[in-house]
Amino acid sequence: MNVRGEVLLPLDEAAVARVAGELDRHGVESVAIGLLHAYVNPHHERRIRDIVARDLEAAGIACPLFLMTSGGGMTTLATALRFPIRLVESGPSGGAGLPRRGGCGRNRGRGRNEATSEYRVDRVNLIG
Q1: Which long-range contacts (CB under 8 A, 24 or more apart) does 85-93 make?
Q2: Cα separation of 69 and 91, whole Å?
């Protein structure tokens, strides 16, 4: 996928299935799938997820889904749906707010480096 979500190369599903088939043999305990520009077009990322989950289930391996929270912990999909605010600074976007000290966010991502006890999303004060 390019930045506009246009397919540059078709997904090689056979290659994905081969890799998925090797996971258990190599003792892999967890799998994360994240493709560049999937935010624009998630088709390849979702298809890889489906192939990996299918192959692992066929091998008798459960595939629970966990998401990373803003605090660096893990949560279930059910909890994330109930409390989506807990995911705001997780994943690739979380790095812009690091490092943290004493629970205070840092505004490094916007060229400032002052500590704050406030937390805002879409210009709405959520904590502080």
Answers
A1: 85/121, 85/126, 88/121, 91/34
A2: 8
Q: Give the predicted TM-score (pTM) of the model.
A: 0.56
CB atoms within 10 A of CB 69: 20
Tokens of 91: 């994943």
Residue with tokens 């000290």: 101
- Per the CB < 8 A criterion, the answer to whether 104 and 91 are in contact is no
> How far separated are the first and last CA of the chain, in Å rounded?
40
Question: What is the four-CA torsion angle of 22, 25, 26, 31, rounded to 10 degrees?
Answer: 60
Distances (CA, A) of 5 to 9, 15, 35, 109: 11, 21, 11, 25
pLDDT tens, position by position, 31-70: 889 899 999 999 999 999 999 989 888 888 777 778 888 8
